[in-house]
């Protein structure tokens, strides 16, 4: 409590020559045990980075298998049953094990305390527990592989999910446990933002990434339990035949869809909001400009989080819904597009009169903006119920949500990985290599999913194993794109692993960014900051000296 | 444990906020079941009313008194802890847990009567007096909601037992007894949820 407040970076730059050597960074010291039992948010983030990257790899392998199968109209490499199980696991792994947890648990965990000048998150032990709950949930989910796979799709629709002979209960229970991990992280982040901000860090000085994590956490805490309960009901039904959604026992299958989407639609904002936070940081750092409107970006995150709770019905336009309900849900869904557009315009305006440079994270900003805008506009299209009736359950919807969710989350994840790589590991990646990888990812992505828009519009239903021969050329194009995307991801992996081992040492703040995490060393010491940090300026004050 | 907080008060504030957020997520967990109940109540209307009249108002209401009384004991325990009378707090928590046990005992009696009558959840249901789908759905929901609630009662008793034991051993003081306050907060939520289940399952006919 008595440590004098230091105003960094003077404290770092002018450390007296005779001072004791700087404390070891968080990466060093202690053995495997000290990692596995650590309460340091940075080490937990690195462990999450490993775990979620494995999930991404696994989900990606499933995707490649699917695309290989769809190269020909008939059977190619697997049976129809195997195909159903593969797309189910692709969806489950990518959504619940990668996209929902990835950015909050990796970058949120690492950066949230650093960005608010705190020593750690509010509940470090709970944070570690969240990691092990995540591992447990993932393990339970993957036991379904040993049990022969599950084939109900990631949406668990009853009555099929309660009657399918495959291992649905394992997946349902696994996802329930993964949800618990999500709730724990959400509670931790909200409390951290409220109680751990350092001196001088008013709400309107919070970096925008913190705002987006805060909005995400609200959704995680309030929506996840509903999904948990719904999936638990499916699992209990399979065990004891309670038939709460079974029409033969008086149940209503549609009610399950309502409950499922009450979580699963807000869940897409759990995936995209942290991504928007990353993008806000990247665009400011690489145009050396404050955001065109800080409040527009911050408040639109909260707007998306709140309106996102009221749009779930647009998944049920063709499932049985009155015209009035359809219209209300359609319009509410479009409100999300308004908030999103506010963000896109603000980011674009941020470039104006900036000193823009095109390092890899910035490239990903452009890919994100392109994919997100394109995906968002098709989102308004499918929120229009008259159009949705044509596109529902076709590849158009598949392409739409891959543009938004994967195009959004994956590009932002990669942007974050490159942008904060020096912060995490104190090393630089090779810019040229990363640029090539980034362009490859983008080209592969567009080539994979643009043909799927065309396929869907031509009427090809999603999740089908076989298709008429006239759809083949577009499917081959899409599979080719998937291979390029995979190659881009592989290039990224190789480049970053090489940088981790042999990359040149990084400065404390290689990008010259102004957000507060760069005020600590790169990689940061275990206690994050030497002494107590006092904040005397905003996070995007590029007109002031750092 | 408080070293990464700027002060002890800040740490208490964080713990309280964390608990409230956890309670909010618990409300949403039950909320899913309340939503199912609402959906089916609208769908079946009168048949739900008939089914709910087969539950014993006497047991349901007695249980409500038992739980509200338990919350009173719990609140008095917090009061005692704040004024440093830890033995007294531990005793009051023991009374709270006693009420919890009584509640579960009465619940078991009620379940037993239902079982004998053939009122079982889902496709095990064979209650001759009410052979309708709607009654089946009502009693499935009855078991799901009261069952989940009973699990929470059990969890709450374990938590109260743990903090009560530590209060008895003198591990707390008038200033530092945060876990006790948080456990009681949780117990109050369990009580409040019952106050919603009681009318929905016993009274609304």
Descriptive report:
The complex is a heterodimer of chains A (546) and B (205). Chain A is an all-alpha fold and 546 residues long. Chain A has a single domain, classed as Up-down Bundle (Cytochrome C Oxidase, Chain A), CATH 1.20.210. Chain A is built from 18 helices and two strands. Chain A has helices at residues 10-13, 32-36, 41-69, 80-99, 102-115, 124-146, 160-163, 168-195, 208-240, 253-287, 294-307, 323-351, 360-383, 385-391, 395-419, 421-425, 431-457, 472-502, and strands at residues 5-6, 532-533. A two-stranded parallel sheet of chain A has the order 1-2. The two termini of chain A are 26 Å apart. Chain B has one domain: Cytochrome c oxidase, subunit III, four-helix bundle (Four Helix Bundle (Hemerythrin (Met), subunit A), Up-down Bundle). Chain B has six helices and no strands. Helix content of chain B is 80%, strand content 0%. In chain B, helix 1 (8-44) runs antiparallel to helix 5 (133-168), helix 1 runs parallel beside helix 6 and helix 4 runs antiparallel to helix 5. Chain B is elongated, with a radius of gyration of 20 Å. Chain B has helices at 8-44, 46-52, 57-82, 86-117, 133-168, 178-203. By secondary structure, chain B is an all-alpha fold. Chains A and B meet through helix 8, helix 9 and helix 10 of A and helix 1 and helix 5 of B.
Low-pLDDT runs of 5+ residues of chain A are 1-17
Largest sheet entry of chain B: none
Under the CATH scheme, which class of chain B?
A: Mainly Alpha
Structural class of chain A: mainly alpha
Helix content of chain B: over 70%
Largest sheet of chain A: 2 strands, parallel
User: Architecture of chain B, CATH level 2?
Assistant: Up-down Bundle
Radius of gyration of chain B equals 20 Å
**The CATH fourth-level homologous superfamily of chain B:** Cytochrome c oxidase, subunit III, four-helix bundle
Number of strands of chain B: 0
By CATH, the superfamily of chain A comes out as Cytochrome c oxidase-like, subunit I domain
Provide a count of the helices of chain B. Answer: 6
Uncertain parts of chain B: none
In percent terms, what proportion of residues of chain B is strand?
under 5%
